[in-house]
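Field reference: sequence -> structure
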Amino acid sequence: MVDREVWEGILPDERATEALGFWLGERVAPGEVILLYGDLGAGKTTLARGIARGLGFSDRVTSPTFTLIHEYFGRLPMFHFDLYRLSDPDEVWEIGWPDYLRGSGVVVVEWPERLGDLMPHEALNVYLNLVTGGDQGRWVRVVGQGERPAVMVKELQTACTSLAWIVPQK
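Structure field:
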């Protein structure tokens, strides 16, 4: 049976979204996969920027919408995929998807639902949605699928009681 752990909260602003990413980036290990789900403007790239910052990368981080992948190098390499314009999962396969998954870096994927059968079985899944009713932040749901991702979610559950930038949901 695969370990699975879930945590939900509200990120009140963009700064909090990046801070969650930073928190994750400080804790990820080589070979981990973070899948970012959400509509356009939900904060996926902001979260990815925070992850890169947590890994020690300080230069500009942008969405690789037109290039499919950007690589950032800090404490660990981060391979940032944006599959929004992907027409066929084979395109990801052709650029070495299995090698990235087996590599020594962290794989971060925006629009992972476009992976089809290439979806990894073990990943930290992060769902972002804008809170309705004005600029009231983002609702976030973090699901750890697999042993290590589930441990990360448990750590987040413990840490969120002391993280002022996040509001846990009951």
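Note: Residues 14 and 46 are 7 Å apart (CA to CA).
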